[in-house]
Every structure is written in structure tokens, then in C-alpha cells.
Amino acid sequence: xxxxxxxxxxxxxxxxxxxxxxxxxxxxxxxxxxxxxxxxxxxxxxxxxxxxxxxxxxxxxxxxxxxxxxxxxxxxxxxxxxxxxxxxxxxxxxxxxxxxxxxxxxxxxxxxxxxxxxxxxxxxxxxxx
Length: 129
Known about the structure:
Elements: H1 2-18, H2 30-33, H3 41-53, H4 61-68, H5 78-90, H6 106-128
Helix pairs in contact: 5-6
């Protein structure tokens, strides 16, 4: 009796294990079906090798951060950003938690801009000394 159940269980497992799972796209992507390559495999390989030799392919997190910052040029000096942030905070434009974000008036925006300009002037005067 026990051996019949064991044989039946083994046969069932073999039957269900033999049927493969068929995976397919949930929604067909027409851009993949109509894709026409613009470059040959050799051209892509040559570009990849050139980018790797130029150090433009990230191999780890450090490389990714270095590559991301290559073309970055800051728009404002650090002292200017700090001064503008402090002025916005003083005016009540920086909120915490889930409070609604207030909309700055033109006068407040001007006050923030002037605070940043003042900080730049102060930094340049300090740099001259």
C-alpha cells in the first residue's frame, strides 16, 4: 500500500516536473519587433572598448560617481546657496513634516536673491584679505 502511494507520488512529481513553464511578454513591445540596428556588432564592440579605455564605463560605485560628475558645473557658489537657504528659512518658506509648502512672493524671492549676492560679495572681500 505504502509503495503504491510512493510510486504514485513519484509519478505525479515526474509528470508535473516534466512540463516546462512557457514565459512570454505580458504585452508585446512593437519597438522591439520593428527594431532595425543602425550599427554592426563590430562597431558597437569598438565603441565599447574605446569608452572603457577612456574611463567612461563604470565598474563600481566610485566610477559611477566620478563619471556622473564629469560634466557638472555648479551654478552657484556654496556660500551663496547657504545664504539663500538661510534667508528662505528665515522667511518661513522652508517647512518641515507634512505642512503645506508656502509659495514665495516676488519680494521674498528678491530678498533671497539679495542675500545670496551679499554672501558672494562678502566671500570675495574675504578672499582679497
